[in-house]
Amino acid sequence: MAEARRMKGFYLGLAAVAVIGVAAILWARSNAAGGVEEIGPIPVSTEAFPGYSMGSDSAPVQIIEYGDFQCPACGQFAVLTGPDVKRRLVETGQVRWTFRDFPLGIHPNALVAHLAAACADEQGQFWNMHDQLYFRLGEWAPERRPARMFRDYARVIGLDVKQFEDCVDSRRYLGRIEATRRTGETVGVSSTPTFIIGNLRVSGSLSFDSIQVLVNRVAGANR
Amino acid sequence: MAGAMLALIGFFLSLYLWLWKTGVLGTLACGSGSCDFVQLSEYGELFGQPVALYGVIGYLGLFATGLWGLQGRWVARREPTVVLAVLSGLGVAFTAYLTYLEAAVLHAWCRWCLISAAIIVAIFASAVAGLWSTRTVSPPAGSR
Predict the structure, then answer these.
(1) Which positions in chain B have a beta carbon within 8 angstroms of at least one beta carbon in chain A?
(2) How confident is the model at residue A150 (pLDDT cuts 50, 70, 90)?
(3) Which of A2, A103, A116, B141 has the most neighbouring CB atoms within 10 Å?
(4) Does residue B37 form part of some domain?
(5) Is residue B34 part of a domain?
(6) What are the DSSP calls for A112-128, one per residue?
(7) Which of B8, B29, B39 sits opposite A14 (nearest CB)?
C-alpha cells in the first residue's frame, strides 16, 4: 500500500517535471516568435554618430542593428543571414541597413573589436572589417590579445596597417562607441543583436524570412 | 526513481539547448554566462550534429532505463541499475571532456552545460548507490 502510494507520488512528480519542461520550452518559443515590440519615434540626436550604413538613402525601410562583435548570436546572424539581407533587400533598394555599436560588458574583447571596426571605417573599409570580425569570431574571441589578429585582418582587407594600428592604439573612437551604446539603451536595447525596423524592435538572430516579413509590415504601414 | 527524475530534467535541458541550436528558439537565456559562445564554437557539434542532440538522446535513454527498473519483476533485479550505471558513467566521461574544453580551450562557461554536468554526475552517483545497496541485500526466495 505504502509502495503504491510512493509510486503514485513519483509518477505525479514526473508528470509535473514534464509539464514544467514543456511549458518552459513553449514560453521560450513564444518569446522568440513574438518578440516584436512597437516603439515610439526613435530619439536620434543630430550630434550622435548615426552608425555605419549601406544601401540607398531613399530606401523605404531603414533597419538599425545594434550589435556586439563578440556576440555569437550576432556572428551567427552576420554569417547565415547577413549575405542574404544584403543581396535581396539592401542591393535591391528595399532597405537601408545601419550597424550601431553595442559592445556588451560580458565580452572582454568586444570593445577593441569595435575600435578596430571604427578604425577600418576611417579607411572606408568598415563592412569588410565587420565581415572579418564575424566570420572569424571563433578565432579571435578566446584570445587574450586579439589586436594582433585584427592587424592581420586589416592587412587582408588592404588597409594601411600602420595607420590602422595607430588609430586602434589611440582609442579615439572609444567615446563615440560608448555614446552609441547609450543611445541604444535609450531605445530599449539590452541584448544583441537587436534590430530596429521602422517602429519595431526585435531581438535575437533573425532568419531572412522573419526580416522579410517585418520589412513588408513596415513598408505596408509607410504606404 | 531519482535517476529517472533527474534524467527527465536533463532531457528538457538538452532539448532546450538543441532547439536553440537549430534556430527554433530565438535567444538563449544564460544570464552573464557564455552559453551561446560555447554552443556555437567548433566543439558545439560532434559528427555534424549539435552536442545537445546527443544529450537529448542520452537522457531519453537514461529516463527509459530508470523507468524500466521500476517495472514489476525488474524492481528487485540488478540489471536495470547496472545499465543505468554504465550509461551514466559514459555520460560522466563525455561531460568531463566537454567541461575540460570549456575550462582549458574555450575559456568560457555555459551554465546549462554545468547544470547538465551536475545532473549526469547525480544520476551516476544514484545508480552506483543503488548497486551498492542491492549488493548487500539477498535476492528474494524463488527470484532466481
Answers:
(1) 1, 4-5, 8-9, 11-12, 15-16, 19-20, 23-29, 32, 34, 36-37, 39-42, 70, 105-108
(2) very high
(3) A116
(4) no
(5) no
(6) HHHHHHHHHHHTT-HHH
(7) B8
Whether B144 maps to a domain, the answer reads no
Indicate the residue of A14, A32, A142 with minimum beta-carbon distance to B25. A32
Contacts of B108 in chain A (CB under 8 A): 142
Q: Are residues A13 and A106 in the same domain?
A: no
pTM, rounded to two decimals: 0.60
Domain that includes residue A55, residue range: 36-222
Residue span of the structural domain in which B18 resides: 2-25+43-133
CA A219 – CA A60 distance, rounded (Å): 6
CB contact under 8 A, A32 and B26: yes
Q: Hey, what amino acid is at B44?
A: G
Taking the C-alpha atoms of residue B39 and residue A196, their distance in angstroms, rounded to an integer, is 26
Residue B105 confidence (pLDDT): 84
What CATH code is carried by the domain that includes residue A69?
A: 3.40.30.10
For residue A52, what are the β-bridge partners?
A: A99
Contact B24 A71 (CB under 8 A): no
Number of domains in chain A: 2
- Residue B35 to residue A139: CA distance in whole angstroms: 17
**Same domain, yes or no: A68 and A11:** no
For residues A194 and A143, membership in a common domain is answered with: yes
Distance CA A215, CA B101 (A): 41
Residue at B35 is within a domain: no
Q: Do B36 and A73 touch (CB under 8 A)?
A: yes
Rounded to a whole number of angstroms, the CA Rg of chain A reads 22
pLDDT digits (tens, 9 = 90+) for B53-107: 999 999 999 999 999 988 888 877 888 999 999 999 999 999 999 999 988 888 7
What CATH number is attached to the domain comprising B67? 1.20.1440.130
State ipTM.
0.78
